[in-house]
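Folds vary. Our protein:
___
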Amino acid sequence: MGKLIQKRDKPDPATYIGKGRVNDLNLLIQGTKADTVVFDDPLTPSQVKELEKRLNAKVLDRTDLVLEIFTRRAKTKEAKLQVELAKLQHELPRLYGKGKALSRQAGGIGGRGPGEQEAEIRRRIIKKRIHKIKQELEEIRKRRKQQRKRRIKEVSREGDFVRVAIVGYTNVGKSTLMKALTGRDVFRKDMLFATLDTTTSARFVYPDLKILFTDTVGFINKLPTELIEAFKATLEEVQEADIILHVVDASDPKWLEKIDTVNEILKKLELEGVKQIIVFNKVDRLVDSPEKVSFLDHSMLVSDIPNIYVSAEKKWNIDGLLNLIYRTVKGGG
């Protein structure tokens, strides 16, 4: 409904954007009749409180918004638990200080006011719930580990195998690529965070090599720390990978920035040392036939990493990608 940009040397401690900009924002809210303001950065609890008071509107920061989207996308029990854990970990520090503010309304000197008691009860409930969720996720993690062992045992009976994790910025077509590579029908939709759950499928392509593909949750710029922490059980599948297929939307003008974002998150997960193949997807948006794919060239900017152009939607060059994985495993990639 409206957009406002602020440039400052450092954030204003009270309102993040400064008094003058808050006044401008107020006029924008009145003109558009907006009831919610979203900030593209994390805010402190006191900043949220101050802004809501001055703007008379609901204030969400980047973390709030991402958590809200994740909540709507979560389908399985594990994804729901992970998102709930992230939300509670985000809420907990915001409760500190709220109690005292509420207590002032009660007046009186010394002792705890009703606000502090209420906040303390809420904190205890949240801490208890966090502990329970972590226990449940640990049980899921153990089961997942056992399933992984069984899967690897079954596949290894057939000969050599390689574990390939599909990662990338959200909405670059990872799940569509997973279907093109394995034939497994996974949920695919043109929206942020369509996939929150990890899916693994085997592909028996070469007589001397079996490939286990794993699809993962999409990454974004400034991914909230709470989400990285909460999704660690899911991301363990990536940490076990021998090769990472880093999927990039070739038609996105900001593709290079998004490669950097994904690499930053892989670094946080201590995965920067794992072999990577960059898969430039959605090339059907740039050329109208597979024969013209050879004219595309993003590779000069990622020249030290093997890369390939595909259209997962139209299944262009999927065999070429499988051959590149094979050559990488066998040392000729």
Observations:
- The chain is about 45% helix and 15% strand.
